[in-house]
Amino acid sequence: MQVITREEFANEVLLGLRERGASDFVFDEKAFSVRATTEPSAEHFLGFLYGEVEAAATDRDRRRVIDRAIENTIASRASLDRPKAATTHERLMPVLATRRHYAIDIPAQAARARGWVDPSEIDDDGIDDDEIEHQVIGEHLAVGLALDHDARIEYVLEASELGLGFEAAYARAIENLRRTRTSPLRALTPSVYGSLGDDYESARMLLTDELRALPLRGDPVVMVPWRGAIFVTGSRDAIGMGVVRKIASEPPAGARPISSAAFRLDEADRWHPFDDDGGNAWLEENLRREIQSAYVAQQAAITARDPSGGEARGGFYASIMQRGDERTLATWTPGVATLLPKVDDVALNMRFPIETARDEALRAAANGREAPIVVSWETFVAICGPTLRERDDLYPRRWATRRYPTEEEVQRLLAASAPVPGTRRTARATLEEPDFVDAMIPKRQRSPGLVVALVVACAAVAYLLREFLFGR
């Protein structure tokens, strides 16, 4: 499918607006928006939906997104006559999404829509201040606030815009959610409950009292695979978990995905990723892939703002490599301030120029080798823990290197090291919705002699078949 440019997307939206009688809209290239010339305040920004257009798998999916942009633009004009504050508060709703959506994707899309970033707007995490105020749920999910209009939702960047603090606005959104959910969760099987609905249906996982009232085996375990769905079973119900897995793997057309992981509600009403102590390995693998995808998106967002990959801001954001045995790997070069992702293995890069006595001592500690020293993440942390500082203010979190490893640490790493299979860099993830990361495998280079031999062999086989079939 041919790539659609920003200008082509905007022109499709303008064409649709004219067909609906709204002929006074024009394209603002710098803001990447369409606005009415007769009512400049009637403006709709296209950056968020352009990301969905880019990610669309089929022409039909792309057309659906374009139509939504047209309808949202028309709705933006209709909503100019805004209600008073009390009515605005009644429209406040919680929007559940991945934490990546709020911490990485939305700021990246906003920056891309503008086409530039003011350096003064960039925080220490490299993400600019377009980040929507949100509440983290279970480490990997998050809840933002939005105003619910008839044909669209309008994200609230900061609750102070509504004259409320975030906690008060969040409480009001939960109250509105409860008021609009008129039907209880339905029993899909004797041990699985769920509901399908609008874009706020998945946020029912925040109504923890409703979940605890269900007759479940163990703690409530929830999956929210897309925005309009929630499925619940018990933490000690293997059969129920299998049913949820089956249902969650079959989203309807056009569904906006959230997460393929599951989350358990503990006795203190806190959410945690659920893996059943390895009993459901597919859950652990799903979460692992989502985190890996988030790391790739995080690095892409940083690189878009800082060509040095974050190094100019105090630390290079190390990329994730895929090893031949499907384990993930990141590399640290001593002397380079690095922000490491959590991976299966860490490679200490020993191929660096000998510029100081310290460099020479490290190379000697590694017995003069230049090949990388590869150890598991657990071994790396156990040996090099004093060199690291966990950055839990980042999502996904990274570990900042604070100093060179010592000669003794290099020797211990060398003793625990393993050989390195071939590696490949993971493909760049899309920034709009959570996707699984597909590895980009480099093509093998074949020698000219081998290619010639293969061609000759194929020709010989073809000749023999022709003689056998037609030669007699």
Quick recap:
The protein is α+β, with helices and mostly antiparallel strands. It has helices at 6-19, 47-55, 59-78, 85-90, 99-114, 166-180, 208-212, 238-248, 281-305, 357-365, 377-384, 407-415, 448-470, and strands spanning 25-28, 33-36, 43-45, 92-98, 134-137, 141-148, 153-155, 186-189, 192-196, 220-223, 229-234, 263-265, 271-273, 316-317, 321-323, 328-332, 338-341, 345-348, 373-376, 388-391, 398-401, 423-425.
Give structural attributes.
472 residues; alpha+beta; 6-stranded antiparallel sheet; 5-stranded mixed sheet; 19% strand; globular; disordered C terminus
Task: Please specify the SSE layout and strand pairing.
Elements: H1 6-19, E1 25-28, E2 33-36, E3 43-45, H2 47-55, H3 59-78, H4 85-90, E4 92-98, H5 99-114, E5 134-137, E6 141-148, E7 153-155, H6 166-180, E8 186-189, E9 192-196, H7 208-212, E10 220-223, E11 229-234, H8 238-248, E12 263-265, E13 271-273, H9 281-305, E14 316-317, E15 321-323, E16 328-332, E17 338-341, E18 345-348, H10 357-365, E19 373-376, H11 377-384, E20 388-391, E21 398-401, H12 407-415, E22 423-425, H13 448-470
Parallel strand pairs: 14-17, 16-18
Antiparallel strand pairs: 1-2, 2-3, 4-6, 5-6, 6-7, 8-9, 9-11, 10-11, 10-12, 12-13, 15-16, 15-22, 17-21, 18-19, 20-21
Helix pairs in contact: 1-3, 2-3, 5-9, 10-12
